[in-house]
Recover the amino acids of this structure.
């Protein structure tokens, strides 16, 4: 079941005798020392600490974490539900976490939207957190990661046409036994190139740091469109090559 808001999951938990105690994941921006980003993150964490009735784990940037890292394994072993704040668009964060951890009861929030005031953090409701004084542990994982660039497949949208597999020149994709595409070699992707997203007729391939909001996942395609032509893709690849 896909959970897109705290309120959705709280509705499911009504009548349950077990306490609602999800783990909250807070994936930091790369620029943690930035004079604007750094204080914003610490202020957001303090607000979450006051409002949230579960433990908080502060992690490096979600997009840069290695695919088979110990953090993803621990998230998987912790169980559900999971609440995640990251600097990725919600669709991309949801797909990334679900694919790497197997968690399905997952709520994602985009810190960029909160930072830009598109979403109000104060408006979020955290039931039971004000009933008693609750100690909330904030655990921090600090590690230096290199900046990555790779596609994320939104499996809820993918139609398994395999256009991405057939198009990619860099060996990023493979075909699984169930005939669905898999990003097998993400770091083979050409930095800054979103061409496979252009050929996807369903808009299922996301590059969360690309400036086009449809390709990044911040906006969803409203209809199936024809993929880009070969000439258009050639021009796009030439532009990417020119930036290297």
């Amino acid at each position: 079941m896909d959970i897109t808001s705290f309120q959705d999951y709280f509705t499911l938990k009504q009548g349950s005798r077990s306490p609602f105690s999800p783990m909250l994941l807070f994936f930091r921006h790369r620029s943690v020392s930035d004079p604007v980003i750094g204080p914003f993150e610490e202020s957001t964490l303090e607000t979450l600490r006051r409002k949230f009735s579960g433990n908080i784990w502060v992690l490096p940037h979600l997009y840069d974490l290695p695919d088979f890292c110990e953090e993803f394994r621990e998230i998987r072993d912790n169980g559900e539900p999971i609440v995640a704040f990251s600097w990725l668009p919600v669709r991309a964060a949801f797909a990334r976490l679900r694919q790497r951890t197997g968690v399905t009861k997952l709520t994602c929030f985009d810190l960029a939207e909160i930072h830009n005031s598109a979403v109000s953090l104060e408006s979020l409701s955290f039931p039971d957190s004000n009933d008693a004084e609750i100690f909330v542990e904030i655990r921090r994982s600090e590690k230096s990661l290199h900046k990555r660039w790779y596609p994320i497949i939104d499996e809820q949208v993918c139609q398994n046409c395999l256009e991405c597999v057939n198009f990619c020149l860099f060996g990023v994709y493979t075909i699984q036994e169930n005939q669905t595409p898999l990003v097998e070699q993400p770091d083979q992707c050409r930095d800054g190139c979103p061409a496979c997203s252009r050929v996807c007729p369903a808009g299922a391939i996301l590059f969360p740091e690309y400036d086009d909001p449809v390709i990044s996942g911040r906006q969803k395609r409203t209809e199936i469109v024809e993929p880009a032509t070969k000439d258009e893709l050639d021009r796009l690849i030439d532009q990417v090559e020119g930036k290297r």
The chain has two domains: 6-140, 152-243.
